[in-house]
Design a protein that fits this description.
CATH superfamily: Alpha/Beta hydrolase fold, catalytic domain
Distance between the termini: 66 Å
Strand order of the largest sheet: 1-2-3-5-4-6-7-8-9
Shape: globular
Number of helices: 9
Oligomer: single chain
Largest sheet: 9 strands, mixed
Length: 378
């Protein structure tokens, strides 16, 4: 808007009084002094730019089409792979990587990796950073690389029995592509003692299942409200319903859920493969639900309890924390439910435990040749 013209006569110009002149001079000098003071203040540390990023190249069956910074520590890559169809993922297929705070300040250091898996029903690689998760805050100051790769709309970290019109080979994607791709692109401890895997809900199952598939790859596994009992009728109902809701066959992930055609469900059930976790650090967390009608978290808690008893009977040491209702209030307000208030708490508690068994910068490699890294000397 323009100011309306004044109707007052301008009259003859009056010379500025000495007092008004001094006030104007004082104002100018004050502004100049403020500007000089601001210029002398310390400049904030620059944000990472593309040139500072690790050179995330295409390899191991993964094609990188673009990269971008999500925050000063978290880098995101758009990827494609022949093992996964585009329609199997919520949005573009991406991998997020949160780097240690000092990654660029220690250019020769190698870091262990935590593979952090998301949940189903709308989950994606963004869930642990900008979808409610506090992976950045939890790992701040910790000597660890955090990798959050997509696990699909309802991928269940398995090679689908009936993928329909899609291609969903999630177990192969993680174990034969993501792990070597990460080791080839980042300064990792590319050995068993340099890897942990954890996840929430669907990802809790995925973490345990992948660790059981390849116990030689991981030193630690953690499940947060994970579906660790595929024999549970409620769990089978959720898996099949979510497949249909996302446009896939009901028997897609694990085949026929009904006896006697449920062979794959049984083969991939963590309960039936407990001894494969012998020698790994195993961490289980779940709540009792925010109320009695919270069937989802109550089911996950009961499944974790059965899995804990199976591990104990199999002679597999583990931690099982049923944090009840409500869960620990600080610092995320865990109410015992199926939500990030509890999953953030669980990851925050699990991470120091993981680091106690992982090889971090400055710790010696184990004897016996198991500490060699695949992408160069530590």
């Amino acid at each position: 808007m323009h100011a309306a013209p004044s109707t007052r006569s301008a009259g003859p110009a009056r010379p500025a009084s000495p007092r008004r002149g001094r006030r104007r001079l004082t104002t100018v000098l004050a502004a100049l002094a403020a500007g000089l003071t601001a210029a002398a203040l310390p400049v904030a540390a620059p944000q990472p730019v593309a040139a500072d990023a690790p050179d995330l190249v295409s390899r191991d069956g993964i094609t990188v089409t673009a990269t971008r910074w999500i925050s000063p520590r978290t880098l995101e890559a758009d990827v494609t792979t022949a093992l996964i169809s585009a329609n199997a993922v919520n949005g573009p297929h991406r991998i997020r990587i949160t780097l240690p705070t000092d990654y660029f300040q220690n250019p020769t250091a190698r870091y262990p990796v935590v593979y952090l898996l998301h949940g189903g029903a709308g989950g994606s690689s963004a869930q642990w950073t900008t979808g409610g998760g506090d992976a950045e805050g939890i790992t701040a100051g910790k000597p660890v690389i955090t990798v959050m790769a997509d696990g699909g709309k309802v991928g269940w970290f398995t090679n689908w029995v009936n993928p329909g019109s899609s291609t969903q080979r999630w177990a192969d994607f993680y174990l034969t592509q993501v792990v070597p791709w990460v080791d080839g692109n980042l300064r990792t401890v590319a050995a068993r003692e340099g890897r942990a895997i954890a996840g929430l809900s669907m990802g809790g199952y995925g973490a345990v299942r992948l660790a059981q598939d390849r116990p030689d790859l991981f030193a630690s596994v953690a499940s947060f409200s994970g579906a660790v009992d595929l024999g549970d009728a409620g769990t089978r109902t959720v898996v099949t319903q979510q497949a249909v809701q996302n446009g896939f066959p009901a028997d897609g992930p694990f085949g026929n859920p009904f006896w006697p055609g449920d062979t794959v469900w049984n083969q991939q059930d963590p309960m039936r493969r407990a001894t494969r976790l012998q020698g790994l650090q195993v961490l289980l967390y779940a709540g009792a639900g925010i109320h009695d009608a919270d069937v989802l978290e109550r089911t996950m808690g009961q499944s974790a309890d059965r899995f804990s008893r199976t591990l104990r009977a199999s002679g597999v040491p583990h931690l099982w924390w049923m944090y009840g209702r409500p869960g620990p209030s600080a610092p995320y307000g865990c109410d015992g439910g199926h939500n990030f208030g509890c999953w953030n708490f669980a990851f925050r508690d699990a991470l120091p435990r993981m680091l106690s068994v992982l090889r971090t910068p400055g710790t010696p490699a184990p004897t016996g040749g198991t500490g060699a890294v695949a992408n160069g000397p530590a």
